[in-house]
Design brief:
The chain is built from two helices and 20 strands. The chain is mainly beta. Among the domains are: 2-68, no CATH class; 77-158, no CATH class. The strands form three sheets. Strands 4, 5, 6, 7, 8, 9, 10, 11, 17, 18, 19 and 20 form a twelve-stranded antiparallel sheet that branches. Strands 12-13-14-15-16 form a five-stranded antiparallel sheet, with no helix packed on it. The protein is globular and about 65 Å long.
Length: 286
């Protein structure tokens, strides 16, 4: 069952943003992706089991839950200052943003103006080409993250994690009333190497929610190495949207040469979940 919705485009949002989901009984599951190629790859890779396919009410229920969840909000964006490849940011990203900055022991959302400047990309052999993009923000030197969206307001915000917090496998990490736990959910041995499917869970009260998945491997079946060559980290946690519930910025990188950060917001969560993945920025190295 495939569910698609198209967001209304505004001058501040990227055009043609689609939202695809796929739920298959005993098959792949793709949830709220804007990449049609990801949906197509999942459909082409699926091989239906032999015999007659019977209706599955659990799949229908799951599809309804996903359709009721609005998914990432189109107007919410995040950025980090630094250098990007041409296809990772747009010149239209220049303009008014909020910078999450630390001022003494406190944090603030501070209005800043972001500039995007064409620069030389180190992977380009032509020394005169300007295929890179340099993102900078005025009035601040080292923001935790840059944010854009109508839900953010200038002023002080509450923080419960002020510095990067590394998540250890098999341990529970309490952040206020929230508990994060990272555990191996599936193990496969291929050519003598253990390969792990690792999931991060968030729990508050009686509600538990899977937040992100990571890939790991081991040559001895004991120590776990991550595909990103670093363990998952919560880079910041607190209340960004003013609803007095937990929001957080998570490192969701899946390769050693990739930096991927995902912002989870409580105000965008629906359908009984605690948070919603609301914006992602992905940057590939040289």
């Amino acid at each position: 069952m495939v569910e698609q919705r198209e967001f209304e485009s505004t001058p501040e949002n990227r055009k043609g943003l689609d939202d695809f989901s796929l739920v298959v009984s005993g098959g792949p599951e793709v949830i709220h992706t804007g990449e049609s190629t990801e949906l197509l790859d999942a459909m082409l890779a699926y091989e239906p089991p032999p015999g007659e396919v019977t209706p599955d009410l659990e799949v229908l229920s799951r599809a309804i839950d996903i359709a009721a969840d609005p998914g990432p909000q189109a107007g919410i964006r995040i950025l980090r200052i630094g250098t990007y490849h041409q296809d990772e940011v747009s010149m239209e990203d220049a303009g008014e943003w909020f910078a999450l900055v630390q001022s003494g022991p406190r944090f603030q959302l501070r209005p800043v103006r972001v500039s995007v400047t064409p620069v030389h990309d180190e992977i380009d052999e032509d020394p005169e080409s300007l295929n890179g993009r340099l993102v900078m923000a005025d009035a601040t030197r080292d923001p935790v993250i840059l944010l854009r969206g109508d839900i953010f307001q200038s002023g002080e915000v509450t923080a419960v994690v002020a510095q990067a917090h590394t998540l250890a496998l098999g341990e529970a990490h309490s952040l206020g009333s929230a508990v994060f736990s990272l555990g191996v959910e599936d193990t496969t041995v291929i050519a003598g190497q253990w390969q792990y499917h690792i999931r991060l869970w968030l729990q508050q009260g009686n509600v538990s929610q899977p937040v992100a998945t990571y890939s790991g491997y081991s040559d001895d079946g004991k120590s776990v190495n991550y595909a990103a060559e670093r363990p998952p980290q919560i880079l910041w946690a607190g209340d960004l949207d003013g609803d007095r519930r937990l929001d957080f910025l998570l490192d969701t990188s899946d390769h050693y040469n990739v930096e991927e950060l995902t912002l989870y917001l409580s105000s965008q969560a629906h359908g009984g979940v605690l948070v919603q993945a609301s914006a992602t920025i992905r940057r590939v190295g040289c």
